[in-house]
């Protein structure tokens, strides 16, 4: 057992972790970069936003359906082999979509939808594999700090992806943007797999772990289901706020502000994640979730129809302050997932979480649209705050016991 460590500096000292962390983040860049590039490419090809929506839906459904299966495959076999197969499959699927959009007539859109579904099934499980192995790499002492660092870095990736796609689109067009995204995914996945092997985590699992996988479904475990529901509620709330902010800027005739306001929320999340990992690592999970709920509630009060006109600077301040709880809250959910699942089934566990959050995001997007049309932006944001409040209740009254002791890998 390594000596007690704390904070970002101590994470940097763990052998092989900085490189592994970097490539795991780069391997997720496609999640935020692809939507804008793929949407622009498809609308230029088909001239129809219906086609864009169908292809995007098929891609998301494939990703959501395969999440637990990919996680279980990672738990049962070689993560390196799984990353290679999915990386090649996902890249080939995107390349085929580009080729069809470049050469096939627009009437061939059903084929593109089918290819998108298969491509989604091949989505690379970098995020769930990395979240599953973090506790084994750093041990229980540093696991909370590492999950906080991941949640914070994920905000950077979420912001950087669209910027990268927009840059490539401006220089070479949307077809190239999709191609660059696919290539970047393949390269980062392969390097991530190699980095896993260097720390001793890219090969076959121990035989006894494969035998233990005959256990009943994780969804039969109450503590785990509770954490999955918490993750789904939080994701739905985040979607509600993002869409409502965009709608508000459209309503006031200043759509360009949407990116600025979203960036303020992200900046607050980055600040909150840095502060938590550096100064306040012991902050209770319930307080983090409560802070997120309070931030959303405060924002709801400032938006129409509750208030008709408010200074822009006040919206910016509330978004930033509310955002400070975002990364710490997400980090808390990662910790809860790790605690609620056996070590040899954590990749599967994070796969179920990915499926639940994808479903929560899709449902939230649909309901938020209805609420925005009927009542304006205040109500969907308030609904988001209510969802986080429900997550708070589950957090407070459903504490999750640790599934088993954390093993530590010394590199």
Automatic annotation (TrEMBL):
Transmembrane segments: 20-43, 49-69, 81-102, 108-126, 175-196, 224-250, 256-277, 289-307, 313-337, 349-372, 378-397
UniProt organism field: Streptomyces kronopolitis
Protein name: Major facilitator superfamily (MFS) profile domain-containing protein
Places the protein is found: Cell membrane
Sequence ranges assigned to domain Major facilitator superfamily (MFS) profile in this UniProt record: 16-401
Annotated membrane topology: Multi-pass membrane protein
Keywords: Membrane, Transmembrane, Transmembrane helix
